[in-house]
Amino acid sequence: MDVSAAGSLLVLVVLGAVISVLVWPKVLILGYAWVTRQTLGLVIRYSHCGDYRFCYAIRGTLGGATTPILFLHGFSSSKDGWHPLVTLLPRNQCVVCVDMPGHAGTSRIPGDDYTIQGQVTRIHQFVKSIGLDKRPFHLVGMSMGGAVAGVYAADHSSHLTSVTLICPGPGLDSPVKNEIIAEMKQRLGQKASIAAIPTTPEELRRMMNLFSYTERKVPSLIIRGVLDMKRPNSAFYRQVCEDLGKPQSVLLLQDKMHLISVPLQVIWGRNDMLIHHSGASLLQAAKPNCQVTLLDNCGHSVLLDKPREAADLIMNFLSSEKNQ
Q1: Pair type for strands 52-59 and 291-295
Q2: Any idea of the CA torsion for 187, 196, 58, 151, to the nearest 10 degrees?
Q3: Cα–Cα distance measured from residue 179 to residue 193, given in angstroms and rounded to the nearest whole number
Q4: What is the C-alpha separation between 209 and 115, in angstroms, rounded?
Q5: Which of 43, 55, 140, 230 has the fewest CB atoms inside 10 Å of its own CB, making it the most exposed?
Q6: Could you give the CA distance from residue 12 to residue 53 in angstroms, rounded to a whole number?
Q7: pLDDT tens, residue by residue, 162-203
C-alpha cells in the first residue's frame, strides 16, 4: 500500500470513528470505560450459578497478598461506576467490581426479586461462584449497594473481614427526611417519571445536580450517550424501585444492623440530598464501635465528589483493622 492510499485509509477510519460517536454517543462512553479498565488492570470475567450469569471486573488474584475488596454499586449504575475510586487504590490491591442483579452484564430475569434481601441472595451466589467465600474479604457498598452490603454483612459476617457502607439506602428510617424521596415515592405510585430514572436531557441534568454537590457542566454529547444507555432500561429500573419500596425492604438494614459482627465503616456526604446523612446515627447507635465519617461539600455521589477521601478512608480502615 502506497503512502497516499494509507493516508486515505487513516482518514476514513478517523472519519468513521467521529461519525460513530456523533450518531451513537454511547460509543464514546463505552470506549472510555474500556480504556479505563485497561489502564487500571481490570479484567472482565463471567461466572454462573445455574443459568444465572454474573459479570464482573477483577484485578489481582483472590488468594494474593492483599485482602480482596468486593464493590457493590448503586441503583442504575454498573461495575464501571467504581473507576474513580479504584484509580486511587494501591495498584497491588485485589478488587472485584460486580454488576448488581439485572444491571449491565449480569442476568436480568423477568419477575426476579430485586428487594434488598433478594439481591443479597444473588450476591451470595456470586461470592460462592468465584470462590470469594474461601477467604474473608472486605465488602464495600454504595447507596442501594450499601443497603445490600449491610444486610449481607448481617447474614454472612463469617465471610467478611469488615464492611464499608457509603450513603446506604433504602433500608433505614433516617431521622431527617429529604423531600426528594417522598416525591419519588409519590410519583412512582402515580406511574409518573421520577428523578432517579431520567428520560430527557433536562431530567438527567436535574438528577446529576441532585446527586452531586458540585455542579458539573456535562457536554450535551455525553448527556445523549448516557440517556441512550439508560432509556432502554427504564422499565427495569422502575421494577427495581418498586421492589426496594416494598415493606420487606424499607427498614431491612435497620432491622438487621445489630447482627453485623465485623468491623463497620460508614461514609456519608454531609450534603446528600437523596438520603439524609442522619441515617448514620442509626448505624452508630446499633454498632457503637463503627467508624462514621461525614464528608463536607459532598453529596450522594461520593465517588464523584470525594473519591480521594473515600479511597483513603477505606484503605486506612483496612490497615487499622489488620493491625489490631
Answers
A1: unpaired
A2: -40
A3: 16
A4: 27
A5: 43
A6: 38
A7: 999 999 999 999 999 888 888 888 888 777 788 899 999 999
Q: How far apart are the C-alpha atoms of 47 and 56, rounded to whole Å? A: 8
Region of 119 please: left (phi>0), alpha (psi -120 to 50) or beta. alpha
Helices (H), the chain: 3-23, 26-40, 83-86, 116-129, 144-155, 179-189, 201-211, 220-230, 234-244, 247-250, 252-256, 279-286, 302-305, 307-322
Please say whether the beta carbons of 138 and 67 come within 8 A: yes
**Beta strand pairing status for 137-142 and 291-295?**
unpaired
**Angle, to 10 degrees, between the axis of helix 234-244 and the axis of helix 179-189?**
110
pLDDT digits (tens, 9 = 90+) for 89-101: 999 999 999 999 9
CB 170 within 8 A of CB 143: no
Residues 6+ apart with CB under 8 A from 207: 195, 196, 198
Phi, psi of 51 (to 5 degrees): -90, 0
CA dihedral 123, 305, 230, 180 (to 10 degrees): 90
DSSP of 80-119: GGGHHHHTTS-TT--EEEEPPTTSTTS---TT---SHHHH
Please count the other Cβ atoms lying within 10 Å of the Cβ belonging to residue 46: 12
Give the integer Cα–Cα distance in Å for 231 and 51. 26
Q: Which residues contact 259 (CB under 8 A, 6 or more apart)?
A: 154, 155, 157
Identify the band that residue 24 occupies on the pLDDT scale cut at 50, 70 and 90. Answer: low
**Residues identified as active-site:** 143, 272, 300
- Beta strands at 160-166 and 264-269: parallel, antiparallel or unpaired: parallel
